[in-house]
């Protein structure tokens, strides 16, 4: 039996597959279509309209045509979703489907033309529209890394801005933000500053000889700094910085596939993790591993627990876990770091979505942005123009990954645990110029 396919009507969604031209769309049938190659995007609560098109065995006017269309749609909970179907005997190679996705997540469509015309099976993703929950902020410069202090200062790479004006610059350094605290690191010195809302006040310094910082875990009172061969822990005791001796962690590791820095840091309670490529000469079937550490008397020490191995390319990292693209598949998965090791939590298909992930030096957290070039309607009744920026979110209750729509028209989007930003064209006095468009990520939904 030949396969069918989905095509777009104006304002409708589309699965983009090739279709040979035919002189008469009713009396002339078409050749079999390729399997769908683009995952549909929908918004929760917004009416969705899909057109399904039969695929028939050849351009022969007298060939039989479909006489009926059967449709089944299941939601993220695998329960049936009501679908209104329009099938006209006068044009039996087309069927129009109408439904409203009420839940975020993956939907599965099954449609079959009978007695000829093929079977269509496709996955559709419904994203939560959270674009109205965050107001954009514009900065007049580009940033590879971006954080914001609690009093409102922007940390753009090594620059500090207030109200869009540069107030401080730390060339040759790396910066990390925790609340009102800004940590500055260079190959020989660690400094702790407090943002008062008007200035940065130095509250402590810690000299060291460990070289460049590869990765950071920062809180208001503590800093874990990972270097090329060692890791160190520094704490603020209320008056000054203190710390234990550095700990050697590197054992002949190679660069993990997909990672920007040589290694990454994670934390779950008192258990730290260093994630890196497998050591040279290792017989492990895994390309990467996460090994547990803890802090003992101010010094980081390796625990007795075994490392957790995993395969794939890391496309995002946060203190609580990793975002991984599975090898050989278009699948994004989330792995949570726990006291028991790195645990895979959930996965989703990326069919038709592009993963945008940058490995800019100095990133302290990074979350992949999924982009789509597909038009789809919004909850306001207007068509959202691509490119669309969507964020994956882990639903810990249902243990699944969901998509959240935040913005359209953003070029080269990037994201951290708290922010998403990208280039955008704005107009001043009628003249266009490119600025950085910044969105705060809305808090996680229950």
Automatic annotation (TrEMBL):
Keyword set, alphabetical order: Signal
Signal peptide: 1-23
Protein name per the record: Lipoprotein
Organism: Stigmatella aurantiaca
UniProt lineage: Bacteria, Pseudomonadati, Myxococcota, Myxococcia, Myxococcales
